[in-house]
Amino acid sequence: MNVNTEEVVACLCIALNGKPISSYGDHIKAITLLSPTIFPIVYAAILGKLLRRLGLYKAERGATIGDLERLIGCQSIFSTLERQFGLRRIDVLGCSILLAWLLSPVGGQASLRLLTTERRMNTFNDTLLYYPIEKYAEQTTLLKSDKSASPFFAPLFVTALQTSRHRIANPMDLFGNVRIPEIASLPGYDPKSEGRWYPVVNNTADTVGNYTSVFGIPIAGLPSSGNVSFNIISHYWTINCTRQDQDQHSSSWSTLGPENTTLTDIKPQSPSFDLTIDEQNSTDTNISFVYQTIIEPNSTFFNQPNVTSIRCIALPVVVESRVYCLEKSCSVTAMRDVSDRGPDTLWLGSSKTPLDVFRAIAVHMPGVDISARQEAAYGSELVERWLWNPNLDRNATSAGWINLSLLYVPFFSQRLQIAINTFWDSTIGTVPRMDSLTKFDSAAFQWNSTTMHVAEYQGLNYVCHIQLAVLTMIISVVLLLAANLSMLLGIVTRTPDVLGFVSESARDNPYFKRYVPSHFSGLEAARALRDVKVRIGDVRSEEGVGHIALATMNTKPERLSWERWYD
Q: What CA–CA distance (Å, rounded) separates 343 from 356?
């Protein structure tokens, strides 16, 4: 590879810029990987020879020893620095030589980075469909007339609880739907700041995570590959429980499951907890209810169980989420509160209000995970065991009663919120929730649409870094000029190349008994004297003060000694 080759390679790299990868381009890229190895060798050969010939040219016309020493002796970056410090002189000549040698590693690294590859992306906008839970109260089975003991959505809800420990902190649910975080848990959230976007940091190390439901929002039309970003609007219930009141032998157990049984009607198949709406203090935007749970039976279990009552507030929240997907792996990256739309627009086209819906949740959720063969001795049902420990380890699933009065209230509020939203989600869009993200039935369900920005990967393109290519070409041109100047100096300079050769110490040396023609260059003299044995020794050993010189062995120079003085 010569100087012209570097320029040609740089031009070829510029021509490949933006082109798809090919075998031809890979060959050019392979050459650029070889350049850093060959480039410094060629550079040193050209610049080193130029400096020597320039030194001879200056010596023929008269020059200082300092200038000649730097021109002849600066054959590398290290020797250049050594000469500058050794001569205690920094001037234009020394700095120019140092700069010239520094161009060698710069040129080598520039040629190495001439050609790289990058992903070729095709960007476009398309329409994405998502299942807007907040608008479809009519789709939920909670408001249907059928109140069977084991409705069809019960298995989905129970499965979500039993498998949640594997994905409880993941941004996507078991079916590949994107999960919505709790906006109030985001850093810096201010409920008074309307329309502000809050970044979401997914923390998979959290045991429960900050998501509102085990389920995510069903999405249809997501591309099978590429990066996608879009916004969706969704609804969830936020639960805040402020205090716990333990009431031993309580008589306030007013509703027990779907049949609104009384305290004396508790049977082995009855729920172990109850949700009671405080109708007088509840509105569509602020629903007050009491969570009542059996902590353990007493001697008269079927008459008066020990009950803990926990007062809570449920608020309907509407949020807009910014979602980013990388190869169908999606997560919410930012959120903002859009609850100012109000309860009238929360479920468009529905005659039901948020209070109606939550009332249905309170009726159907207790006991949904109890089969007809539930034994009374088993104790608390699955929902409460999940509230106690979402991982559902061996201790949480053993027979007995869970005392939720011992659970830290913020933990209880967060887990009850996830359980209620998971139950609510399981009653809506059961089929599309478990279907593929790319399939949908527009006739059976109503879908919301949103604009998604897609960047599809379409292979690799070559990228030529133009600045490095220009730099490589400039250095190559400088080397070409240096090579031509060196050749010209070799023609016009009559002085033989004798500076810096050991053989030149034999020229006109009285202690060197071999004749060296004066017109020989240093290399020619070295070739003529290559078999002559010499020694640097004491040529005046018989005198009191010795003299050190390069001499042939036939002059019998003595070896140097630390015990003698030399002039």
A: 12
Any residues with CB less than 8 A from the CB of 170 and at least 6 apart, and which?
A: 179, 204, 209
Would you list the domain boundaries of the chain?
3-114+465-495, 123-458, 498-567
Here the tokens at position 298 are: 């007493």
In tens, the pLDDT along 455-502 reads 887 778 878 888 887 888 888 888 888 888 888 888 887 767 766 766
The pTM is what? 0.64
Residue positions counted in the chain:
567
pLDDT tens figures, 280-295: 888 888 899 988 887 7
Q: What does the H/E/C string look like for 157-173? A: HHHHHHHHHHCCCCCEC
Alpha-carbon distance values, 414 to 183, 217, 365, 380, 473 (Å): 12, 19, 17, 19, 65
Listed in sequence order, the residues at least 6 apart from 325 whose beta carbon sits closer than 8 Å to its beta carbon are 178, 222, 227, 228, 229, 331
**Residue type at 406 in one-letter notation:** L
131 and 218 in contact (C-beta within 8 Å)? yes
Strands 565-566 vs 545-546: parallel, antiparallel or unpaired: parallel
DSSP code for 268: T
Type of residue found at 176: G
